[in-house]
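Inverse folding, one chain.
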């Protein structure tokens, strides 16, 4: 479950990715009230991922970063088919979570470039 009040924003990012670091710097300029969640140093629980999927309005398979080179090199990736398998994959390998993601209230958005944040009117 994703904790936090309706006015709290949570920025989920991967500190190993350039886009995520750029978006983090960009969003930090607009608000200092953002909870930062780095997948490199945080444990992602199943309930968090289920809730995140719901807030994003996507299936569990869409939480996976299908462009991740590490993931593409794993043969078992080609055989994932159930929601549980996708969730288990991300829990075991947080690097495979598609990031960055901004969570606010009961909604969330994938950020594909740092300027996507300009389109979110609450910043």
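Residues assigned per position:
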């Amino acid at each position: 479950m994703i904790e936090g009040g309706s006015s709290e924003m949570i920025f989920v990012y991967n500190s190993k990715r350039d886009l995520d670091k750029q978006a983090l710097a960009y969003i930090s300029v607009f608000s200092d009230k953002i909870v930062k969640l780095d997948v490199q140093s945080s444990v992602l629980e199943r309930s968090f991922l289920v809730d995140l999927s719901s807030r994003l309005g996507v299936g569990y398979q869409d939480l996976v970063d299908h462009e991740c080179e590490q993931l593409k090199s794993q043969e078992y990736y080609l055989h994932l088919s159930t929601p549980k398998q996708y969730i288990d994959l991300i829990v075991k390998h947080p690097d495979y979570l598609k990031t960055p993601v901004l969570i606010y209230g009961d909604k969330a958005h994938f950020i594909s470039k740092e300027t996507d944040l300009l389109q979110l009117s609450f910043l």
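The first helix runs from residue 18 to 30. The two ends are 24 Å apart (CA to CA).
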